[in-house]
Amino acid sequence: MRKTIFLAVALSSAIILPATAQLGKVWSDFQSYSVDLQNYLRNNLSDFRPLEIQTQGAVTSATGELNIPNPIFANEIISSDIFINSISGNFEGNPLLNSYSVGNDMNRYIIRGSIASYLGRNGQIRAKVKLQNTERELRNIDAFTKESEDNYSNFESDVTSKVQELIGKGDIAGAGILSSLLNQSIFQLKQIKIQQNQSKIIGENLAQTIQGNQFLQYANLNLSSLSQQMEETNRARRVDNSAEAARLLRTTSQIDLFGRSDDN
What DSSP string runs through 187-245? Predict the structure, then answer.
């Protein structure tokens, strides 16, 4: 009887064990990502030459508690700095238009940093370790579930035999207690199997989430590239229009000059 109750208690506590296997240190993972992002931003300041100091200042001021910059705030800071100080660009003499252009560059700059941090070497290592740990825990849960099923099978055989023995002795109360323990064990085994399936679903969701984030990063990169191409196209069009306007002005001036010469 004591052995049978011990088996029941062991099986009832088994359902708790898989939950103690924690996958990861999510805050540490995020800190690693944010450090990679900040390193990218610091190492690529030359993209904003000669505005490296203003760019670093905007990124630093826009960085919050998570150690990642708020792109909207960073855009506002550097755009305001350029406009207030009337800073012209290499391709844009109007400070207002230059502030818009550099602000857009800031957005793309942070997006590229995020992509590089997520899909870069360290980011892929983080994802790989997380997926490997998930698969290992799922295998452990499968093994644990199999062990629980085997224990239950032995437990059921022992309890059934003991119940019949107690009934034969007329101990109906004792037989009822063991039958109740057996029913509880059946329920607990079902719970273990449910948690096993839930763990697999969670693992699949994690894998799908990582893949989905990867696709989103590619989409963000494409949008960033398209935005840059459109801005460069518009800049080239403005340059061409300015050149054409200057040519027409020169032509008009020459015609006007020739006309005056003829009048004289």
Answer: HHHHHHHHHHHHHHHHHHHHHHHHHHHHHHHHHHHHHHHHHHHHHHHHHHHHHHHHHHH
Whether 19 maps to a domain, the answer reads yes
In the three-class reduction of DSSP (H, G, I as helix; E, B as strand; rest coil), residue 99 is classed as helix
- The pLDDT, as a whole number, for residue 36 is 94
> Would 218 be classed as within a structural domain?
no
Reported confidence tier of residue 261, pLDDT bands at 50, 70, 90 = low
| Alpha carbons 222 and 47: distance in angstroms, whole number | 19
In a domain, 95, yes or no: yes
Q: What pTM did the predictor assign?
A: 0.69
Give all strands (DSSP E) within 46-133, no chain letters: none
Query: What does the pLDDT look like over 46-82, one tens digit per residue?
Result: 888 888 888 899 999 999 999 999 999 998 998 888 8
Q: Give the list of residues 6+ apart from residue 221 with CB closer than 8 angstroms, or none.
A: 111, 112, 115
The residue ranking higher by pLDDT, 152 or 64, is: 64
Range of the domain at 23: 2-213
Would you say residue 244 lies in a domain? Answer: no
Contact (CB, 8 A) for 27 and 59: no
**pLDDT given at position 140:** 92
